Structure prediction request, 218 residues.
Amino acid sequence: MLPTTASSARDSQRMKEWLAVRPDTTRIAGYVPGPGFEKLDLTFDIAKLRQALNDALGVSAYEYMGEGFNAIPLTRRPGDDSVTANDLSGLYFIRPDETYQEVPREEVVDEHAFSEFVPALKGSYFEEVHSALAARFPIGRMRVLMKEPITCNSWHRDPEPRLHIPIHTNPGAVMIVNNHCTHLPADGSVYFTDTRGYHSAINGGEKQRVHIVAALPQ
Prediction:
């Protein structure tokens, strides 16, 4: 149906109004609170986090998780040094096609079982971080996750929420939970992310994005 004169005039006027307001391009360089994201009072020393990462890379290697995503496990099942692909990923849910039907991917991981800090990194600042978190909350799998530049994760939801502690980032690295999108600066802050909602991580920058991510068992 062809537009009426009245609707054309409305669209023209609205377009003028929209064009007159320029987007705020400064907000993306900082944390913007919103549904699905909360900033804790707890903080860590960013210089020590980065040194701990450098030290860890000397004794541990990133495990490839797919889609430009890599992980170094920081917790494990007591006495078990095996790392399976499912341990790195775990159960998540996705709506993969135009039917909009939700389907599960991977298998359930018992987050409560990952109660032991990995022996190879004992004495590191990462162990201090784990101890500080575990003293406050139930902590399951805790990993260093690295996202390659110009990549994104699937649009999915997890069985449990997560804590994020950025170590290295860039303004093009953002997270989306449901309809809220924000950048998480690497300044030692700890962020609660309600990944029980649909979410994704995007690294649209030219540098690696590296976060500590700790699951909060439900």
User: Anything to note?
Assistant: The CA atoms of residues 52 and 125 lie 6 Å apart. The chain is about 20% helix and 30% strand. The first strand starts at residue 37 and ends at 43.
